[in-house]
């Protein structure tokens, strides 16, 4: 049951109502035709979700991942509407009305951490952490080099905030959690996406087909089913990066994620226990 609000829930300056040109996943995306509010989170299938929403809004280039226009992520180019595009009165109606579905997708924190580490610290010539975290350091190269282990990357991100590794619990202010209707999981993305799209009446037209290289598969297809299985752990070389000590440290770093009952991360699944 949602609490009764005293005054307006959404206030000017709230993180989810503030347009930040450097943080594209602050405000949620609003699909007015289907009364959906979706909170995208980096490293949690956000590219696919934004492609879906562009498809729902009728863009013929909805599948594009344009490096120049930075599609589908750039709010200045993707044509999507965000909560800040509405008046404060309308934003409050959207966020509090039971006629609107408020949803997000989350990911097991240690998997998300490893994905961010491999993508943003190890790959692509270390460009992301070099520009985001290390360029103003006295020894920028040493900063980059020290982040090439999971433990070193963890120490770096404690002092370098970024949405790619920020705790998922911090996605919204505390007062908004009672208004979130559905929390989906990367590990069961195909089933969860279908459940959401069926609820809002968008499955048959936008979710059931048109995805993957054959354009006949459903959204997320079978790709996400292995997100939590041992084959994916091997592919990521989990045991190369994680030690029992580092695994416990990452769990502590994301304690708020594990303790949020809406996320349903009920156990600390041990990556280093099974090979």
Automatic annotation (TrEMBL):
Pfam families: Sulfotransfer_2. GO terms for cellular component: Golgi membrane. It is a single-pass type II membrane protein. InterPro entries: Carb_sulfotrans_8-10, P-loop_NTPase, Sulfotransferase. It is found in: Golgi apparatus membrane. One of its GO terms (biological process) is carbohydrate biosynthetic process. It comes from the Eukaryota. Keywords: Glycoprotein, Golgi apparatus, Membrane, Transferase, Transmembrane, Transmembrane helix. GO terms for molecular function: sulfotransferase activity. PANTHER family: CARBOHYDRATE SULFOTRANSFERASE (PTHR12137:SF54). Belongs to the sulfotransferase 2 family. This is Carbohydrate 4-sulfotransferase 8.
């Amino acid at each position: 049951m949602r609490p009764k609000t005293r005054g307006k829930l959404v206030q000017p300056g709230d993180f989810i109502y503030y347009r930040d040109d450097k943080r594209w996943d602050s405000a949620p995306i609003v699909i007015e035709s289907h009364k959906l509010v979706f909170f995208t989170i980096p490293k949690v299938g956000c590219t696919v979700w934004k492609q879906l929403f562009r498809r729902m809004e009728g863009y013929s280039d909805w599948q594009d991942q344009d490096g120049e226009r930075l599609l589908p992520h750039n709010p200045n180019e993707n044509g999507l509407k965000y909560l800040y595009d509405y008046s404060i009165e309308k934003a409050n109606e959207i966020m509090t009305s039971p006629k609107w579905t408020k949803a997000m997708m989350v990911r097991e924190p240690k998997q998300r951490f490893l994905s961010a580490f491999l993508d943003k610290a190890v790959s692509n010539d270390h460009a992301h952490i070099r520009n985001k975290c290390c360029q103003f350091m006295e020894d920028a190269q040493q900063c980059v080099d020290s982040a090439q282990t999971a433990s070193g990357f963890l120490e770096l991100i404690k002092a370098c905030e970024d949405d790619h590794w920020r705790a998922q619990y911090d996605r919204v202010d505390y007062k908004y959690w009672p208004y979130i209707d559905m929390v989906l999981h990367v590990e069961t993305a195909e089933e969860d996406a279908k459940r959401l799209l069926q609820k809002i009446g968008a499955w048959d037209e936008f979710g059931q087909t048109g995805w993957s290289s054959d354009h006949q598969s459903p959204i997320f297809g079978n790709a996400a089913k292995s997100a939590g299985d041992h084959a994916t752990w091997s592919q990521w070389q989990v045991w190369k990066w994680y030690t029992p000590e580092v695994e416990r440290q990452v769990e502590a770093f994301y304690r708020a994620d594990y303790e949020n009952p809406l996320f349903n991360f009920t156990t600390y699944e041990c990556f280093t226990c099974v090979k």
